[in-house]
Specification:
The protein is α+β, with helices and mostly antiparallel strands. The chain has one domain. The protein is built from 10 helices and 7 strands. It is globular, with a radius of gyration of 17 Å. It starts with 20 loop residues before the first helix and ends with a helix.
Length: 237
């Protein structure tokens, strides 16, 4: 692989030695560095450094100082106890295909890694918050509301990282920077949810096999489109 190529079919578990790819896959880290070291909406370069000891990716300039970590954004819920009654009804090969696709580069993003006043990071809070349950579509809705100064289940968490989100100017800038265009509709005014949305009232987990299949289909569709966007920029030649 050329240092400027990205293989969108590469399963980042391959070089993670059985550990969490977010922290252990060197290929994933290099893909992140290549993808997200680029000009911000204001035209300034946001370069990422991977040479700092015990720091995943790092940036320091007149823009500020940022500690960033990888976060998986495509979740199958295939290992969650709360969804086992559904997972057991779905062919194993379908689950394995979904699970494998979730470990390609399109299934990952960067978030700030530093804790502020001992509180949860965005990565941690979106996983623990029962209104989000790690769903990237619901997380993105919270980010959309953040930029519009509206409340959401992640309001307090996102506000702690004002400096990070200000880098992208607005919601459109954030989505375009991280290649999330296929998760929004109506000129960035709405999120394209994986399941019907009711203002964070319902449990975010699929409630039955029909909802799970809808959730799976929409996740895979988004993942494949995001991978295609990545391939068009940095795909292997």
């Amino acid at each position: 692989m050329d240092e400027k190529d990205i293989d969108i079919t590469f399963d980042v578990r391959t070089d993670s030695r059985g550990l969490d790819p977010d922290s252990s896959s060197e290929t994933l880290k290099q893909y992140h560095k290549l993808l997200w070291s680029k000009n911000l909406p204001n035209g300034k370069l946001f370069s990422l450094d991977d040479t700092k000891d015990k720091i995943y990716l790092y940036h320091k300039s007149e823009l500020g100082e940022y500690y960033l970590s990888s976060d998986s954004i495509i979740h199958t819920y295939s290992k969650w106890k709360r969804t086992q009654h559904i997972i057991q009804q779905i062919p194993k090969d379908e689950i394995e295909l979904f699970f494998g696709l979730s470990y390609t580069i399109g299934g990952f993003i960067l978030f700030p890694a530093n804790r502020i006043n001992g509180a949860n990071t965005i990565n941690g809070e979106r996983g623990l918050n029962s209104k989000i349950n790690d769903r990237i579509d619901l997380t993105l809705e919270c980010i959309r509301r953040y930029y519009n100064d509206e409340n959401s289940p992640l309001t307090d968490t996102l506000k702690r990282y004002n400096d990070f989100f200000s880098l992208f100017s607005d919601f459109k800038g954030y989505c375009e920077y991280f290649l999330l265009q296929d998760l929004v509709i109506d000129n960035y005014s709405k999120v394209n949810f994986f399941l019907p949305f009711d203002d964070f009232i319902r449990n975010p987990l699929p409630k039955d096999i029909d909802e799970y299949n809808e959730y799976k289909k929409n996740n895979i569709d988004f993942l494949q489109k995001r991978n295609k966007r990545i391939e068009e920029i940095y795909g292997e030649k």
